[in-house]
Design brief:
This is FCP1 homology domain-containing protein. The chain is an alpha/beta fold. The protein has helices at 36-49, 63-72, 104-119, 136-142, 157-169, 203-218; strands at residues 10-15, 52-55, 79-80, 84-85, 121-128, 146-148, 221-224, 230-232, 253-254, 265-267, 278-279. It is globular, with a radius of gyration of 18 Å. The model is unreliable at 169-201, 215-240, 242-259, 267-272 and 274-280 (pLDDT under 50).
C-alpha cells in the first residue's frame, strides 16, 4: 500500500498492542493475541473520530499479518482474497524503531516530524500502556496527547472517551519550532520481547505468523558503516531501516545505501557491501 495522499485535518491514533489491545495477563504465545472487547473499542474509536492507525507497537514489523488481523476485526474495510484489506495500513504508517525500546516518545515524535505536513495531521493521540510522558526532554511535546492504558485491562470504554476528546480538541500543534528528535541507532525488536497476544483469528493466520517468525530468524544481519549498528531485513520485504538516521529504505527492495543519509550497509559477518539495489 502507498502512503496516504495529501489531506487536511487528518486525525491519527498511535496504536500499541500489548497492554492496549490485550491484557498482559494472557499466557505468552509466539504470535500476537488480541482481546475481542479491546478490538471492538478500537473500532468504535476509529469510527467516531474518523482517525487513521499508525502502528507504534514492536509488532509493527509484521505489517502484512497485522493488516489481516485488523481486517478480520472489521477495522480496515472488506478483505479481498487477491488484494488484501480494502484500507490496508501502509508501510509508512508505522513509527521508526530506535535502539532504546523505552523511548517510544522519540519514535512517535520522529514520525510526526517526517509525516505531519505531508499527511495534513491536525489531531493525534497515543494509546500505550507505557508511560511515554516519563522523559522530561519530550514531555511537553506529548502532554495532552496520551491515553495510558492499564496493561492488565487493555483498552477500556473510558480510554476511548478520553481519546475521542483529545482528537476532537485539535491539540496537535507540533510546530515548526519543535526541537529536532535525534537518535543514534535503530534495531529490529528482539523476538524475546514480543510476548504478545492474539486469539488466532483463523488457522491460516496462525500458520502465516509461524512462517514469518521462522523466516525472521533466518534473515541475514547487516550493519551500517556510518552508524556501526546492527540492522535486519524486515519481514515481509519492507526494506531496511538505517542505523544512522532511522529512515526506512524503499519498500520491497534490497538496498546498499540509505537514501536519506548515504550510510552504506555491510554484511555483519564478512563486512562486504550488500550489493546493488534489486527487486526482492
Amino acid at each position: 500500500p502507498k502512503l496516504l495522499a495529501m489531506a487536511h485535518n487528518r486525525k491519527v491514533v498511535f496504536v500499541d498492542i500489548d497492554g492496549v489491545l490485550n491484557g498482559h495477563g494472557h499466557d505468552p504465545k509466539p504470535y500476537a493475541v488480541f482481546d475481542d472487547d479491546a478490538m471492538r473499542r478500537l473500532k468504535v474509536l476509529l469510527e467516531r473520530s474518523q482517525a487513521h492507525i499508525v502502528l507504534s507497537t514492536s509488532w509493527r514489523k509484521h505489517l502484512s499479518y497485522l493488516n489481516h488481523v485488523f481486517a478480520n476485526y472489521g477495522l480496515l474495510g472488506k478483505m479481498s482474497p487477491t488484494s488484501g484489506p480494502e484500507r490496508a495500513i501502509a508501510s509508512e504508517m508505522r513509527t521508526p524503531c530506535f535502539a532504546d525500546p523505552r523511548r517510544r516518545d522519540l519514535e512517535i515524535l520522529r514520525w510526526l516530524q517526517l509525516n505531519r505536513a505531508t499527511l495534513g495531521v491536525e489531531s493525534w493521540v497515543v494509546l500505550d500502556d507505557m508511560d511515554v510522558l516519563a522523559f522530561p526532554d519530550t514531555r511537553d511535546q506529548l502532554l495532552g496527547h496520551v491515553v495510558q492504558t492499564n496493561p492488565t485491562m487493555g483498552l477500556t470504554d473510558a480510554d476511548v472517551e478520553a481519546a475521542v476528546a483529545i482528537l476532537g480538541t485539535r491539540l496537535s500543534e507540533l510546530g515548526p519550532s519543535c526541537p529536532e528528535v535525534t537518535v543514534s541507532a535503530t534495531v529490529s525488536p528482539a523476538l524475546g520481547g514480543l510476548r504478545s497476544a492474539l486469539q488466532p483469528v483463523d488457522d491460516h493466520l496462525l500458520q502465516s505468523m509461524g512462517a514469518v517468525l521462522q523466516a525472521l530468524r533466518q534473515e541475514p544481519v547487516f550493519k551500517c558503516k556510518d552508524g556501526h549498528g546492527m540492522v535486519q531485513k524486515q519481514i515481509p520485504c519492507t526494506g531496511f531501516c538505517c542505523e544512522e538516521c532511522g529512515i526506512d529504505l524503499v519498500e520491497g527492495s534490497w538496498a546498499s545505501q540509505c537514501e536519506s543519509c548515504g550510510g552504506i550497509f555491510l554484511c555483519a559477518d564478512c563486512t562486504a557491501p550488500v550489493g546493488k539495489t534489486t527487486s526482492s
